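Researcher: Next entry in the queue.
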Amino acid sequence: MREKLFKFSNLILLLIFILIASFTADNFLTVQNLINVIRQCCILGLLTIGMSFVLICGHMDLSIGSIMTFTGIIAISFSSKMPAVPAILSALFVGILCGLVNGLIVVLTHANSGESLMITFGTQLLFSALSLLYTQGFSLEGSNSSFYNAIGTGSIGRYLPIPVIIYFLLAIILSVIESRTTFGRKMHITGFSTVCSQLSGIQTGLVKLICYGISGIMAGAAAIVLTSRTLGATPTAGTGYEMDAIVAAVLGGVSLSGGVGSIGKAFVGVLTLGILGNAMNLLGFQTFDQNIVKGLVLILAIAFEVWNRKHNMQIRRAKNVNHQENH
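Model: Structure for this entry, 327 residues:
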């Protein structure tokens, strides 16, 4: 029974938040509000997919928010000079390029998880500076392309926003890659133990490079959805998103120590954080109040994840002892 509670703890937490929100916020359970929650979750959801790949392979990416900012600026800037599709592809290319820069530095320096955190903190400052240099500190007006703007604001029918379709298509594709392919298995093994994966013949450097590349391109995708929804780009648009992505991933069961997690479960974390944020907005919480709550949730989630990992290790040790005694 206790093992089942551990297994479904993220879903239980989501249900608890839904119940609390429905009883405390009057308009929470309206159809329009629930659609808005899911629509707002899409940007964070795309970032969390990228963050999850990096976390599962045993590393960290603090630059994902600044990459989103920079690629959003590129997308808006280019969309005023060329058709929407080339502008979108250019932004995605810049996103994956930024991710690969992170990956190359991590791989070439043989960085561990803590060192990758500091490396990507450095590149976060770099990409933020590039955004400020490109815009001279000013905001950019939105695209004139109706196609581009429809990505963030359009919907199919009344209840199916286009950002939701984009998120679920990418989530399904990357979930299959993470859970059903040889690369996905190599990624999990690399995150669990770099030494063991190298002894198994896995090219850990290539695995890490691809994970950071995925993180970069997902930041680019999130930037396109964000800028097409807000009809503009600012040099600080992505500030704080990296921490939200980490919180969402951890709430979804992705381990900060690497090797554990899935894209499907990460969505549960995104939805949990989205519902929490929406409920706090409906209740009139200020930004600093919300940050306090998010910080407490992150601390509790990490504490639970560490406790859960130790609990699982104890179970495995007990099983090994019983197996040895039986033989």
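Model: The chain has a mean pLDDT of 90.
Researcher: Noted, moving on.
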